[in-house]
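Cont'd.
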Amino acid sequence: MDELKDKIHPLRKFLSLRLSVDDESWSRLEPQIKQQHFKRNDFLLKQGEVEKKIYFIESGIIRYFIQRGEDKEATFAIIFENQLAGAYDSFLQQLPSEYFVQAIKPTVTWSFPIEVLQRLYMEVPIANTIGRITCEELFLIKAKRELSMYKYLPQERYLNLFSEKPRHIKEIPLKYLASYIGVTPQALSRIRKRIK
Amino acid sequence: MDELKDKIHPLRKFLSLRLSVDDESWSRLEPQIKQQHFKRNDFLLKQGEVEKKIYFIESGIIRYFIQRGEDKEATFAIIFENQLAGAYDSFLQQLPSEYFVQAIKPTVTWSFPIEVLQRLYMEVPIANTIGRITCEELFLIKAKRELSMYKYLPQERYLNLFSEKPRHIKEIPLKYLASYIGVTPQALSRIRKRIK
DNA sequence: CGCCGAGTTGAACTGAATCAAGAAACGTGG
DNA sequence: CCACGTTTCTTGATTCAGTTCAACTCGGCG
């Protein structure tokens, strides 16, 4: 029990790298944050649902995908531990999500519900800054990915991902990776053979 | 002169649609905001430069593009009047931009320098909220575009743009539109013929 | 042991890029 | 305001990377 108390909260660690979080503020935030566990293939959110939470990924991997036609899907984002996740566009507008958010391996998250966040904006000055930082973080991820889609070819994107997340890449089924870098599983299989 | 005084500032109008801006706060912000004019093909920012400002587009059209190889370029964003612009990723990180930001017709902007914004975060409570709203706005644009790239075919993207911005689309050279939609100018030319 | 999903490999097809050339539009200076 | 030159757009022919379809292998799990 004492060990748990001493261990710094992973979300606090994440926030502390981006802004200064004093004990007073943290003690107001901390009780609002709930842990959730997801099994492989569990959904954090399905298409048509409205996102009510922002998730911080303590461990695991999340993918975002949309459905095209009856049986095809396109994975357009993959999020790893120590990143923020959730259908943030649905969250901001409180409109139904056009895509799915799914764990692709067992995943542990910490999340704020939206009502809590909005109340905190009023009550705790730092919350507003957290809101801004959160959004900036998510913006940068999207901007980076957008650029990589324009700057690099599929095989280059694969190699980039490989050098950025060598440890994780093995845990992601090839079919999701393929979709993420913008080709069919067959094409990625051939890319792999070519570069090996 | 009196007419000018009475006319509501276009940026204030923009902000008021998203949060309440009292006269007191506005009077602190207003003197910090500078108008700038750009001619056709002027650059708001070039690759390698660090973005120091956030722009609000009063009128005109802006495109974002990266250079590939020696002579090829890819337009990945087009921004119209009453939207925010600038290399926001470069701005947030204060790192050199990987892309260019350019006016494709005569354009009038209002902009905050970054130092002012950061000072305002401390001094004017509402500034923090403006920072958040700004970021949310820019995030939603990116998220929307990302989805449209996955959900729709190039000709559908063209038609969507057409129905969203019929007035503006004529003012954008086809080669930029083509790139934005994700095809070559030749291919877009053929799409046009096909749907007409 | 046999099934099923995932990955690999092969062959044929296809849609868009590229190469090339001509037509139209644009703007710049005389 | 016209004439020339440059840029943009269109159209055609060719090429090619990646998709699709299909068969086969591999590995985990009931």
